[in-house]
Amino acid sequence: MSIARYWREIPQRYNLIGTKCGSCGRVYFPPKAICPVCRRKSIGKMEEYKLKGTGTVETYTIIHTPPPHFEGEEPYAIALIKMDEGCYLVGEIVDCDFEEIHIGMKVEACFRRIEEDGTRGAIQYGYKFRKAE
Amino acid sequence: MREVAVIGSGVTKFGELWEKSLADLVAEAGITAIMDAGIDGTDIDAMYIGGMSAGRFVGQEHLGALAAEVSGLSEMHIPSTRVEAACASGGLALHSGYLAVASGAYDTVVVGGAEKMTDVAGKEATNILASAASREWEAFFGATFPGLYALMARYHMHKYGTTPEQLASVAVKNHHNGSMNPNAQYRREITVEEVLNSTMVADPLHLLDCSPITDGAAAVIITSLDKAKEFTDDPVKIRASAQASDSISLAGRSRFDALPATIEAAKRAYKQAGIEPSDIDFAEVHDCFTIAEIMAIEDLGFFKKGEGGKASEEGLTALDGEIPINTSGGLKSKGHPVGATGIAQIHELLLQLRGKADKRQIEKAEIGLAHNVGGSGGTAVIHILEAI
Ligand SMILES: [Zn+2]
After folding, report:
1. Is residue A36 one of the residues assigned to a domain?
2. ipTM for the complex?
3. How far is A48 from chain B (nearest CA, A)?
4. Cys-Cys with B110: which of A26, B47, B198, B324 at CB 3.0–4.6 Å?
5. CA-based angle B206:B300:B168, to the nearest 5?
């Protein structure tokens, strides 16, 4: 079964738009409707916030057994990245030898094709990361 | 709240059971448990069944009614409810049944768990399991389920110096225990070298660091402690039943060297039982990957954070160790039919507490703990059982 078939368009995926809590200032990605720290106090105060796109590799793995929509891409690197704004996200690291990838490596977001849905031909885009200069 | 006891249990063989359907497995486990407890259909007030994704594995939803039909209980119209929390579905079904009995709403309840995973191809099974993680923010970007645990494994290795050999020692120990379990899927002993030489799935996790894809079912019968004595001379008391939830996605958690849901559920369980981690004689923990067992024995308070790998390598969790972990063979060797796992863990606790674990019987088995996890840590369920 194709995963892509039922994906809505999620603009936050390629714009890296999260939310900032107007009460405590914490930044969340993916966007949250409510701040888990401030809860009630944050209602109506969650503002859109565009991440700078820079962060640090917190941990990483090289995937050798891919899911259907990544078949043929293996091996590829997936990292848990701490964004400079303090939130974490999971994404692929591209344009980089696996040997170069390490915990603490500075990375920046770039926007790439994630997958193509064979039936509809719709191309899904999203963020990936590369080594920051 | 009143006290609750387990009075019987049953499991099917775990493995690739081509000749058996999901319904066959549910019926077999349920009937075995009912016979073991010595109860009759008229004694049963309700049923709970844990299952992760029968809809995608075999195209069958509505497991509550399915369980009622195949156990011969449909004409009595006994209420039967399906519970889902990915790989923690079984444990959560027991927590639900426990609350129903403890509250006094029901007296005697059958709690089962089942998954029939090998009717689809291995790749499709892996894809279905990935639905335990966040589709939108993890799976979409190429993170697999082993990949998420690999991220935690690398983090743990970096922070505490945990080694691939220490990870492998968990699999070796569990296969040793499983070799003595007639119901286990893989009864073959393995070595550290075999684990390290097996195919890399998600670096640093090899194929033999991962639990397999399995068909199987398990069931237990619970009732109020007062009533338990009417049915059996050998009831086992549930000292604690606790659940904690967390963000479904790994990136949404507060830390990556532990499962915060496990730490919180453990805190609640120890408080309910009025005991400390050192009071636990043995445990079945959720070793879906070797790193998961290492984090679990730390998060449950058996070893200090960061020392789980060393403890495993030194044999402290072996059958004759300080605290035997996964005497059944764990998910790794016994197999991991996701919905059944949480109940199969309780079955093993019952065997040990009743002194019926045969070759793998440990010496001191008075208080046992079962730890069941959903996804990469979005749900944790803990039960503490005591022989009385
Ligand atoms: Zn806030």
Report:
1. no
2. 0.94
3. 18
4. B47
5. 20
